[in-house]
Amino acid sequence: MGAAERAPVVRELEIAARPETVWGFLVDADKAARWWGVTVEIDPRVGGLLRVLVTSGRTALGELLEVDPPRRLVYTWGWEPTGDPVVDQVPPGSSTVELDLVPSAGGTLLRMVHSGLPTVEQEEAHAMGWLHYLGRLAVAAAGGDPGPDPWRRSE
């Protein structure tokens, strides 16, 4: 089964904050860096760059495809080459992340769909990664401190 035919990674979670607040944690580089990565660069417009140094030596790169504040954000996703054949299976632009923010009684229902991953192993690794980082997003957007990222490797 090719990447286009694979089932996407889907995550849904309730965040105790309004969609406008959650949106800020997705498109403001300083806020995004509180929950996701060592450094975050984002130009929140269609065609804008997304670059996240997630952990030492692992940099995600994408291009924003859809920007509909505070409802929907879509971008391409992949990893800058590392020389690691596992990481390099998902080059920049090879997969797509869709984030939908829906108002709910508790604040916001975030629905994330990551499609286009090439293998079951990549699906499993990215599913675990999104579970980790979206949990940190939920804490930060609700006004909490997710603390230091335990996945960060020292330089």
What radius of gyration results from the CA coordinates?
15 Å
Q: What oligomeric state best describes the polypeptide chains here?
A: single chain
* Beta-strand segment tally: 7
From the coordinates shown, what is the CATH architecture?
2-Layer Sandwich
Can you write the helix and strand succession as a string? Answer: EHHEEEEEEH
CATH class equals: Alpha Beta
Query: How would you classify the helix and strand content by structural class?
Result: alpha+beta
Query: CATH homologous superfamily, by name?
Result: START domain
**What is the beta-strand fraction?**
25-35%
Query: Within the largest sheet, what's the order of strands?
Result: 1-7-6-5-4-3-2
Give the terminus-to-terminus CA distance.
37 Å
Shape: globular
- Report mean pLDDT, rounded to a whole number: 93
- CATH names the topology as Alpha-D-Glucose-1,6-Bisphosphate, Chain A, domain 4
Number of folding domains? Answer: 1
| Stretches with pLDDT under 50, minimum 5 residues | none
Total helix count? 3
Biggest sheet, in brief? 7 strands, antiparallel
Assign a percent range to the helix content. Answer: 10-25%
3D architecture notes:
- This protein is α+β, with helices and mostly antiparallel strands and 155 residues long.
- The protein has one domain: START domain (Alpha-D-Glucose-1,6-Bisphosphate, Chain A, domain 4, 2-Layer Sandwich).
- Helices cover 23% and strands 35% of the residues.
- The protein contains 3 helices and 7 strands, in the order E-H-H-E-E-E-E-E-E-H.
- Strands 1-7-6-5-4-3-2 form a 7-stranded antiparallel beta sheet.
- The longest helix has 22 residues.
- The chain is globular.
- The termini are far apart.
- The mean pLDDT is 93.
